[in-house]
Amino acid sequence: MFGSLTVPWQAAEGATGGGISPAEAAAAILAHVDAPEGPLRLLVGEDAPGRVAAVLEQRRADCARDPRFDAGSAAERG
């Protein structure tokens, strides 16, 4: 997810991610594409928000290892 070779949660071998059927996922994607406006990214499935948050937190923690990262964030906040 997000350029990573691994995901930060356990998944059964051959699992599709679960939580939503392929037909429901397709319908959500098509509705999102047809919407006149909305967010750039679509979170599909009940577990998607938590999983995205976990990945983003890992990415933030990795970036924070660079001392320039927090300094840049502080400068942006003013």
Protein traits:
single chain, 78 residues, mainly alpha
Quick gist of this model?
With 78 residues, the protein is an all-alpha fold. It is 51% helix and 0% strand.
Description:
The protein has helices spanning 22-34, 48-63, 67-77. With 78 residues, the protein is an all-alpha fold. The chain folds into two domains: 16-45, no CATH class; 47-78. The radius of gyration is 16 Å and the shape is flat.
* Termini Cα gap: 32 Å
- Tell me what portion of residues adopts beta-strand conformation: under 5%
Count the DSSP helices. Answer: 3
Q: Mean pLDDT across all residues, rounded?
A: 81
- For the record, the count of structural domains works out to 2
Structural class: mainly alpha
- Summarize the amount of helix as a percent range: 40-55%
Helix and strand pattern: HHH
Topology, please?
Elements: H1 22-34, H2 48-63, H3 67-77
